[in-house]
Specification:
Keywords: Membrane, Transmembrane, Transmembrane helix
Order of helices and strands: HEEHHHHEHHH
Transmembrane segments: 58-79, 86-105, 138-157
Largest sheet: 3 strands, antiparallel
Strand order of the largest sheet: 2-1-3
Number of helices: 8
Number of strands: 3
Radius of gyration: 27 Å
Protein name: TIGR02234 family membrane protein
Strand content: 5-15%
Region (Disordered): 167-199
Structural class: alpha+beta
Shape: elongated
C-alpha cells in the first residue's frame, strides 16, 4: 500500500515547522538556564557564615556549549543535502542528548558550591551546609530534550526538506533558460516582447 504524496508532503512540512521551533526554543532554554542559580547553601569557615550560590555555567559549561552547537547544526541542516544533511542532523540530535545528560548530572552537583564558598571566604577549609537545588537544571534538561527532538525529526524527514542551495540553483537555471542567448536576433525579439531590455 503506497502512501499518499499529499499527506507525506504535509507531514514533512509539519515536521519542518516543529523541528525549527523545537530546536530554537530548546537552545534558548538551555542558554537561559545556564545563567540562573542551580544550587545554594551556606558557606561556613574561619568563624564566618555566608550564603553562597552556584549558577548553571559554574556547575557545567557543557549544556550551553552543546546548545550553541545544536543551534548551528539546526541552521546548517538547510545548507546541505544528502549525506551531509544526515550528518548535520545527527550532530543536532547528539548535541541535544549531551545537553540533556549533562544538565541531569548537574542537577545535584555540590562541587560548584564548594568552589564558590572557598573563593568567597578565601580559605580551602570550608563547609557548605543547608544545600538546596533549584528547578533550573530541569529546565535545561527540557531544552536538551527539545534539541534532541529537533535532531530526530531532521533525521526522519530531513531528506524531504528544501535546501537553500537547491533553491538558488533552480532560480539560476530558470533565469538562464529565460534569458537565452543575447546575441541571437530571435532571443532579442523575445526579450523585447517580454518587456525586458536585451542590452
Amino acid at each position: 500500500m503506497s502512501r499518499d504524496p499529499a499527506n507525506s508532503a504535509r507531514a514533512s512540512r509539519r515536521a519542518l515547522g516543529v523541528a525549527l521551533l523545537s530546536g530554537a526554543a530548546g537552545a534558548a532554554v538551555v542558554l537561559i538556564s545556564a545563567g540562573q542559580t542551580w544550587g545554594e547553601g551556606n558557606a561556613q569557615g574561619g568563624g564566618a557564615e555566608l550564603p553562597v550560590t552556584a549558577s548553571g555555567s559554574a556547575v557545567s559549561g557543557l549544556p550551553s556549549a552543546l546548545a550553541l552547537v545544536g543551534l548551528a547544526a539546526l541552521v546548517a541542516v538547510f545548507a546541505v543535502r544528502g549525506t551531509g544533511r544526515v550528518v548535520v542532523a545527527s550532530v543536532l540530535a547528539l548535541s541535544g542528548a549531551g545537553a540533556l545528560g549533562s544538565a541531569l548530572l548537574g542537577a545535584g552537583d555540590t562541587e560548584a558550591l564548594d568552589r564558590a564558598a572557598a573563593e568567597m571566604l578565601g580559605i580551602t577549609d570550608v563547609a557548605v551546609t543547608s544545600i538546596s537545588h533549584t528547578g533550573w537544571p530541569w529546565f535545561s534538561a527540557l531544552g536538551g530534550l527539545l534539541l534532541l527532538c529537533a535532531g530526530l525529526l531532521a533525521l526522519s524527514y530531513g531528506r524531504q526538506w528544501p535546501s537553500m542551495s537547491s533553491r538558488y540553483e533552480r532560480n539560476g537555471r530558470r533565469a538562464g533558460r529565460r534569458g537565452g542567448d543575447p546575441e541571437r536576433p530571435e532571443d532579442i525579439w523575445r526579450a523585447l516582447d517580454r518587456g525586458e531590455d536585451p542590452t
